[in-house]
Amino acid sequence: MPADDPDAEVNAADATSRRVPTIVAAAFFMETLDASIIVTALPSIAHSFGATTLALSLGISAYLVAVAVLVPAAGWVSERWGARNVFAAAVGLFTLASLLCGLSPNLGAFIAARALQGAAAAFMSPVGRLVVLRTTPRHRLIEALGMIVWPALIGPVVGPPLGGLISTYASWRWIFFINLPVGAIGLWLVLRYIPQPAAGARRPFDGIGFTLTGLALVALIEGLSLLAEARGSALAGGALALAGVVLGALALRHARRHPHPLLELEAARDATFVISTLSAGLVSRIAIQATPFLLPLMFQIGFGRNAFEAGLMLLIYMAGNLSMKVATTAALRRWGFRRVIVVNGLLSAAFIAGCGLIAPGWPPLLAGAVLFAAGLTRSMQFTATNTLAFAEIPASARAGATTLAAMASQVGAALAVAYATLALAASRDLRGGGGLALIDFRVALVSSGALMALAALWSLRLHRDAGAEASRPSARAGDPDAADQASTAGSR
Questions:
Q1: CB atoms within 10 A of CB 287
Q2: DSSP helix/strand/coil, 70
Q3: Cα radius of gyration (the chain)
Q4: Can you list the domains of the chain with their CATH numbers?
Q5: Which range, 27-36, 65-74, 90-99, is most confident?
Q6: pTM, to two decimals
Q7: Rounded CA gap, 409 and 121, in Å?
Q8: Residue 11, Cβ neighbours under 10 Å: how many?
Q9: Which of 22, 143, 233, 470 is placed for a possible disulfide with 391 were both Cys, Cβ 3.0 to 4.6 Å?
Q10: H-helix or E-strand containing 104?
Q11: Comparing C-alpha atoms, which of 387, 400, 342 is closest to residue 127?
């Protein structure tokens, strides 16, 4: 094969651009499944340790805090030691931490192992996304980023019923042991098939920026978590959240003035990235992630179903997520990002609100149709906004962009749970009820739909050709950008 054959180079880059996202997606699925599967198993884990379920929530908090503290450093670490090496280390560490979780003899060891898992996840998500960006030609970004989005769509849906099934009919420890073969195979695939990039520039570590950013995220996430809990925690939660905002402002001020900031803000100058990730996209993410949190609770508390049955009902929702994946690329290429995000966002808003109108007496076919449609539109919106975020980012800003996107994801997840819980509590208090009822879930889901509609209308601020280069069907022969992407796919 001639060394200077441009077609051969493009074909090799295309093969890599298909293989790498599949490997990264498998690692992401292990991570997202682990984060959601534990929820329904908490009572079983608590019983085995002789602790309360509330005490076991520290295992979730330890995971989230570890992610929040370390995720700002992901970009710097990947440039310092290589994205492929860091991603492989994160997969290996996550697998080891899963083993330690399954073998934990007591509560303290379990919480420590969960914190170790969170530390690995802090690097797995942003660095895995960076690996995909650096090995994918621009004209294949939709397919590549769409591939790594589906674990975030499926994991939270599959996790709860699977966790309930395992903890009911086997030992809760298998929830973590199932990660071992997946992690081992994934680590081998990373080392075998993901190319080794050239060493990045060695910049000094920004310790002040790391401290400010980490403390800001921890304070904000913990504050929102407290706000979403008992009423007595509202004052402390509000104070922590406010402290997080103040520390975040100081971190941004520091990043603008530091010659080598840990938090690179070049991507924040791109209007498309800001709208799709930090403003309208963040609001959209809150509505998207609040829905699978509310639905299983509504099926249990409002419909009287058990946890396993409620989880099974979400499989219809998951089927909608999966079914839309085959149509997403074609839709984006036919109508463009802006039109799809706005129109599909309004449809998604309608179906999220429609989920709140489902009643126990509805015909199963009608209820299933609403859930399926909600899954379809959720999948399209999730993929479109996540892909558009990186469609116009130059190579020099991709490391910083992945870190900012990962931080927005963490904040969005915390805001989604806090928003859903506060909406439930507000509805309950307004009607003067002592406990949650079906009407409270209706209010929360309809308000989540309104939030999605707001995000869709906000996205009208996107320029008409947003992401046009990434949505082209293929790279033109002789296209300088395509040639550059192909020739440097494994060496940046």
A1: 29
A2: helix
A3: 22
A4: 266-461 (1.20.1250.20)
A5: 90-99
A6: 0.74
A7: 13
A8: 13
A9: 470
A10: none
A11: 400
Farthest-apart Cα atoms in the chain, separation: 77
Residues 6+ apart with CB under 8 A from 333: 142, 471, 472, 473
Here the tokens at position 48 are 């085995």
Show the tokens assigned to 197: 């990039």
Q: Give the model's confidence band at 484: pLDDT under 50 very low, under 70 low, under 90 confident, else very high.
A: very low
* Cβ atoms of 266 and 400 closer than 8 Å: yes
H helices of 170-273, where?
174-177, 179-193, 207-227, 234-257, 271-273
Nearest to 137 by CA among 426, 435, 488: 488
State yes or no: pLDDT of 5 exceeds 80: no
Q: Which residue has the tokens 């060493």?
A: 199
CA distance 271 to 269: 6
DSSP code string of 112-174: HHHHHHHHHHHHHHHHHHHHHHHHS-GGGHHHHHHHHHHHHHHHHHHHHHHHHHHHHHS-TTH
- pLDDT higher than threshold 70 for residue 491: no
Amino acid at 412: G
Give, to the nearest 10 degrees, the angle between helix 6-37 and helix 83-103: 20
- Residue 266 neighbours by CB distance under 10 Å: 16
- State the Cα–Cα distance between residues 321 and 402, nearest whole angstrom: 24
**Residue 435 or residue 52, greater confidence:** 435
9 Ramachandran zone, left/alpha/beta (phi>0; psi -120 to 50): alpha
Most confident of 34-38, 196-200, 360-364: 360-364
The Cα 136–Cα 22 span in angstroms is 12
Buried b (16+ CB within 10 A) or exposed e, 383-415: bbbbbbbbbbbeeebbbbbbbbbbbbbbbbbbb
Contact 273, 392 (CB under 8 A): yes
Looking at residue 379, what is its pLDDT?
87
